[in-house]
Design a protein that fits this description.
α8 links the parallel β8 and β9. It contains 14 helices and 10 strands. α1 packs antiparallel against α11, α9 crosses α10 and α11 packs antiparallel against α14. The chain folds into 2 domains: about 240 residues, Alpha-Beta Barrel (TIM Barrel), CATH 3.20.20; about 70 residues. Bound molecules: flavin mononucleotide.
Length: about 325
């Protein structure tokens, strides 16, 4: 039996209930485009500091850069000043963003110190002012991403989500950890159900979804309409499409074979060089190459060596030299 699990974010319909997490330093244009090419309900930019956007930092604009093939691109904003957030939202709307996502989940010190990210969960009044200002500033839908609360004794995600819906927010994503947990412990999908009970807009469950079964279980425990996947897509840009298929049909699609994987790595490498230029691109590519090869035979040695190379031709040759014997062996 095929299940229909579309999600409505204001006037926008997501055909698939599986979303890519915004991840600073990871979900850049080449990675978003790759994940989207396999299949994903929605991809989101890396977090954009609204202040930097307004000051016209080149790198910030590059992070929010939308292409016409990313017709369903959500741009995530962080900040603590309602007027600045509103202005940055308008700028992104003008530049083609389909959705603005507000970050109230980031635990990083830099952001929290600036009283943005998850620090806003400690001050619902201030959070409300930001939500209202951004919603008023744009025509496109505005969504909110948060944690369960600041710490275990103040898990106020249900209250904040309720406030957000009243202010016109069209979807809420909850990472099932508190700010103080950072990335420790387990994402509490069950707690997310308390948010479900307070809102009627779409709810997305996030945190620790590493397998297709995790996705189904997170949906069951949280009562959410969809899931968001971050680290589970490291080195597996096809993972979201497997989750989509599993949720719809109850069956698991195989991973790409090694020859397909090699081509994905080479194409992704080229896309990063094209996007950032050779100097920056080859450095940014290192973590992706490491993730792609994790668990394969002799990959630790390969990673050590490939990450030392400065010449992109040599990197490509080494990727071929690493994969080709494995491909031949599997075929034999
Ligand atoms: C490297 C990294 C960067 C992240 N950057 C952002 C960000 O820019 N905005 C955001 O809302 N969350 C960010 N997050 C949090 C993720 O979106 C997600 O909520 C969290 O990793 C839990 O989901 P996961 O277990 O599927 O990775 C980041 C997480 C990681 C690991």
């Amino acid at each position: 039996m095929t299940k229909n699990m579309t999600i409505h974010i204001g006037p926008i319909t997501l055909d698939e209930p599986v979303l890519l997490s915004p991840m600073a330093g990871v979900t850049d244009l080449p990675f978003r485009r790759l994940v989207k090419s396999f299949g994903a309900g929605l991809v989101t930019s890396e977090m954009i500091a609204s202040q930097a956007m307004i000051r016209d930092h080149k790198r910030t604009h590059m992070m929010a850069y939308a292409e016409s093939d990313e017709y369903l691109m959500s741009v995530q904003l962080a900040g603590c000043d309602p007027e600045m957030m509103a202005l940055a939202a308008r700028m992104n709307e003008d530049r083609g963003a389909a959705i603005i996502d507000i970050n109230m989940g980031c635990p990083a010190k830099k952001i929290v110190g600036g009283y943005a990210g998850s620090a806003l969960m400690q001050d619902i009044g201030e959070a409300r002012r930001i939500l209202a200002a951004v919603v008023r500033a744009v025509q496109i839908p505005v969504t909110l991403k948060m944690r369960t609360g600041w710490d275990i004794s103040s898990r106020n995600a249900p209250e904040l989500a309720h406030v957000a819906e009243n202010e016109g927010i069209k979807m809420v994503t909850v990472h099932g950890r508190t700010r103080n947990q950072m990335y420790k412990g387990k994402s509490d999908w069950h707690f997310i159900h308390e948010v479900r009970d307070r809102i009627s807009i779409p709810l997305i469950a996030n945190g620790d979804i590493l397998t297709c079964e995790d996705a189904a279980e997170a949906l069951r425990q949280s009562g959410a309409d969809g899931v968001m996947i971050g680290r589970g897509a490291y080195g597996r840009p096809w993972f979201l499409s497997q989750v989509i298929h599993y949720l719809k049909h109850g069956e698991k699609l195989p991973d790409p074979d090694l020859a397909e994987l090699k081509q994905i790595v080479l194409d992704h490498y080229q896309a990063m060089l094209d996007h950032y230029g050779e100097e920056a691109g080859k450095k940014i590519a290192r973590k992706h190459i490491s993730w792609y090869t994790k668990g394969l035979r002799d990959s630790a040695v390969f990673r050590q060596q490939v990450n030392r190379l400065g010449d992109v031709g040599q990197v490509r040759a080494m990727i071929n030299d690493f994969f080709d014997p494995l491909i031949r062996e599997r075929a034999a």
